[in-house]
TrEMBL record:
GO cellular component, one term: membrane
Parts of the chain that traverse the membrane: 101-118, 130-149, 155-175, 218-238, 291-316, 322-342, 351-372, 378-401, 413-432, 444-465
InterPro entries: MFS (IPR011701), MFS_dom (IPR020846), MFS_trans_sf (IPR036259)
Membrane topology: Multi-pass membrane protein
Molecular function terms from GO: transmembrane transporter activity
Location of this chain's protein in the cell: Membrane
Highest taxon in the source lineage: Eukaryota
Keywords: Membrane, Transmembrane, Transmembrane helix, Transport
Descriptive protein name: Major facilitator superfamily (MFS) profile domain-containing protein
Domain called Major facilitator superfamily (MFS) profile: residue spans: 45-470
Pfam families: MFS_1
Length: 504
């Protein structure tokens, strides 16, 4: 054990010395050289994150598509409890909502351990290993035959998939400046919408495979095999940090480290800092970002789990219910990319965009809650508008990356916000599952209340951080050409570093 500790300490000492040496020898570089590096990173790392997050979203959402191929009936997840006056069946979907909910319990259990592993071991190994294992779990879903089996399967799947989003939030801070992070975070986060856009028709095609297997089983077998194959690509291609990667030449490495120092967000360290860990839970920003992600997770989780069932309850056929989720995914992806672009071009608009996205989705919940059931087009438009709120959650994730400094604090805050994500995605399916179909009124009312909470939380957070920036401006203001007082190897948190300014 002592030898292992000494080896870890030696590794960290060598990395810090390497950073110090690079900082001493960094030559000035031109804007063109920096642009070339950013372009290289965008074409190298961003596609790896995007495809991985798309697979993560696709794999966890296959169960929703499988419901259109008797998945619920085969596993005993839905029961009929009565009939409307027109003969429409009233269904109890509590078991199905439990099978969805337990995925997020697994995600909740796995989040902090996965972040611990990602800080102590090469990030690419942690992510690729988890991806490989969850691909195997997805394939094993085809072997489930009852309620107990699918509950265990989804629990393990959630635990393994928890490796991706929190670590990607931290990974973005290693490579891009704070002004650039919202768009890059939006690029990988929008792939939840990409998955929703492309998956329905693919799943429908896989469901038409006729053979000895039940029609929903090929979906899980094929997608699980693709995921395990992709894990191999991640193992060899995903970099860990500018300090350790072999994918940069020496000049590019120096530019990357200089950009990292410009962030004033601390260094890259494999040492756990207890003080930073405890500071995380004394920081208002931890709770505000977590609350926004939790509250947006309620309608997001509900629509992700019950989307096809709710649309089917509006009166659409099984195929139409699958097909109509495609534009919902498209609006999700486009809204995330749009707000990412707006916040990149217009500084100080992230919280404003969160509020606007929430207000648009509030209108959608009111339509689905109060709209006439005979107007299928209007009800579908309401679902369409609800999807916009996913962009608010994406911006909250980017704020964690941009407004938190110190490696341990950043990792802990990222994990904490995705704990909120899990809780929201647990609550969403629960309130929809407890609300009789096809109306699901309690689900839409709950989503309305949560989105109102997003507006209030974002407004308070904006006012608080704006005042904090003003206080720091009075205490400390760097003059023209003045060098930063702190270097990245000090690994200061945002509360410790008086030069740090919060992104609004």
């Amino acid at each position: 054990m002592d030898d292992s500790i000494r080896r870890v300490e030696k590794l960290n000492l060598e990395e810090v010395e390497k950073v110090d040496e690079m900082n001493k020898n960094v030559d000035s570089f031109s804007p063109e050289e920096e642009k070339r590096l950013v372009r290289k990173l965008d074409l190298w790392i961003v596609p790896l994150m995007m495809f991985t997050y798309m697979l993560q979203s696709y794999d966890k959402g296959i169960m929703s598509a499988a419901t259109q191929f008797n998945f619920n009936d085969d596993l005993g997840l839905t029961t009929i409890v009565g009939y409307e006056s027109d003969g429409t069946a009233i269904t109890n979907n509590r078991r199905y909502s439990n099978a969805s909910m337990i995925f997020y319990i697994g995600y909740l259990v796995g989040t902090y351990p996965m972040m611990y592993l990602a800080q102590h071991f090469p990030l690419s190994r942690v992510i690729s290993g988890a991806t490989f294992l969850w691909g195997i779990v997805v394939m094993s879903t085809a072997g489930c035959s009852n309620y107990a089996g699918i509950m265990v399967n989804r629990l393990v799947l959630g635990l393994l998939e928890s490796a991706v989003a929190p670590t990607f939030t931290v990974l973005v801070t290693f490579w891009w400046t704070r002004d650039e992070q919202a768009l890059r975070t939006g690029l990988w986060y929008c792939c939840v919408g990409v998955a929703t856009t492309i998956s329905p028709l693919i799943n429908y095609g896989l469901g038409q495979i006729h053979g000895s297997l039940l029609p929903w089983k090929p979906m899980f077998l094929v997608l699980g095999a693709i995921t395990t194959t992709w894990a191999v690509v991640l193992f060899f291609c995903l970099p860990d940090s500018p300090i350790t990667t072999n994918g940069l030449n020496e000049n590019e490495r120096q530019i990357a480290l200089s950009r990292l120092e410009r962030n004033q967000a601390g260094t890259i360290s494999r040492q756990f800092d207890k003080a930073q860990f405890l500071e995380t839970f004394r920081d208002f920003k931890t709770y505000s970002c977590t609350l926004i992600i939790l509250l947006t997770g309620v309608p997001s989780g509900a629509i992700g789990t019950f989307g096809t069932i709710v649309i089917n309850g509006f009166g659409f056929s099984h195929f139409d219910s699958l097909a109509l989720t495609c534009p919902i995914g498209a609006i999700t992806a486009l809204s995330i990319l749009l707000v990412g672009y707006v916040t990149r071009k217009c500084n100080g608009t992230r919280y404003l965009c969160i509020i606007m996205c929430a207000l648009i989705s509030i209108a959608g919940t009111l339509i689905c809650w109060l709209g006439p059931r005979s107007n299928k087009g209007l009800l579908f438009a309401g679902i369409f508008l609800i999807a916009v709120q996913v962009a608010a959650g994406g911006l909250a994730v980017s704020l964690v990356a941009s407004n938190i400094a110190g490696h341990t604090k950043k990792a802990t805050t990222s994990a904490s916000t995705f704990v909120g994500y899990c809780i929201g995605n647990i609550i969403g399916p629960l309130i929809f599952g407890a609300s009789p179909g096809p109306l699901y009124r309690a689900g839409f009312i709950g989503s309305f209340v949560c989105l109102c909470g997003v507006v209030v939380t974002a407004a308070i957070s904006w006012a608080y951080l704006r005042r904090e920036n003003a206080k720091r401006d009075k205490r400390f203001r760097a003059g023209p050409g003045q060098q930063h007082m702190h270097s990245i190897d000090e690994n200061l948190t945002d509360l410790q570093n008086e030069e740090f300014r919060y992104v609004l």
